[in-house]
Specification:
Length: 256
């Protein structure tokens, strides 16, 4: 399983992109930077898009992607709440064509919205995908994605602390997880449903005591304004746990 990090931040600029990762060139997870970071040829290869939740930084490239790739049908998988936000705010037939239907612009639909139920594994393009509830102000799911070769990724952003049940229901080899704020903004992290290095440490310690191991850990959804501070604090978490922890950057790839 090859994981390519297209966007790894929560704020966009010339140097930072919104969250999106690509698995084996065919499965996209979140759509913050799905069009801006891929060539048209690369976009054409994508068969399905998984959306974690309805916040703008995770869904915003869906209409642009559908516009670019209207000759093919792309399936979008998400919880019903997220599909409703997408339909009422972005794929609404007002700011762009309604890509889920045939109309004067489209000879056939370019998007099919598919509902995911939490904790119910589903086959998507040969991968087993299980949506798992996270802790965030609006309904949000992470994804445990298992490849045909039994490589297993757990994608968990955006989320705040309290992930014990998540650890009980998954067994990833690679964990991609939210770390948005530095420790001095711990209260903001709690309030906004995100993690800081100190909260991450507690969650990873709980993972280890629940599962008896730690997976490879990659951090995502960093606030660029605090990145240097977060990276410094993550070094402390890393030495405390005795494992390497990677902070993802745009363009990184990881193979498991
Ligand atoms: Zn969010
Ligand atoms: Zn976000």
């Amino acid at each position: 399983m090859n994981i390519r990090f297209l966007g790894t931040h929560n704020e966009e600029s010339r140097d930072t992109r919104l969250v999106s990762v690509l698995i084996d060139d065919v499965l996209a997870v979140d759509a913050g930077s799905l069009t801006s970071e891929l060539s048209f040829k690369e976009q054409e290869r994508i068969r399905a898009i998984l959306l974690s939740h309805g916040h703008y930084d995770h869904i915003r490239a869906v209409p642009a992607f559908a516009f670019n790739n209207s000759q093919q049908l792309t399936r979008v998988f998400a919880a019903q709440e997220t599909l409703d936000i997408l339909s009422s705010h972005l794929v609404d037939g007002l700011i762009y064509p309604k890509f889920t239907e045939k109309n004067s612009f489209l000879k056939k639909p370019a998007l099919e919205l598919c509902r995911l139920e939490a904790l119910s594994p589903q086959d998507i393009e040969g991968y087993t995908v299980m949506a798992v509830p996270l802790n965030h102000p609006i309904g949000t799911v992470g994804f445990e994605i298992t490849s045909p070769e039994q490589k297993r990724l757990l994608y968990a952003t955006d989320t705040g602390p309290g992930l014990h049940r998540l650890w009980e229901s998954t067994s990833p080899q690679l964990l991609v997880i939210d770390t948005t704020y530095p420790d001095r903004l711990e209260k903001t992290a709690w309030d906004a449903g995100h993690l800081c290095p100190k909260l991450l440490l507690k969650e990873l310690a709980d993972f280890r005591s629940t599962k008896g191991y730690l997976p490879r850990v990659v951090l995502i959804h960093l606030s660029p304004k605090f990145e240097a501070e977060i990276r410094d604090e993550v070094r402390g978490v890393s030495s405390e746990l005795g494992i390497p922890i990677k902070v993802a950057s745009e363009g990184d790839t990881i193979t498991i």
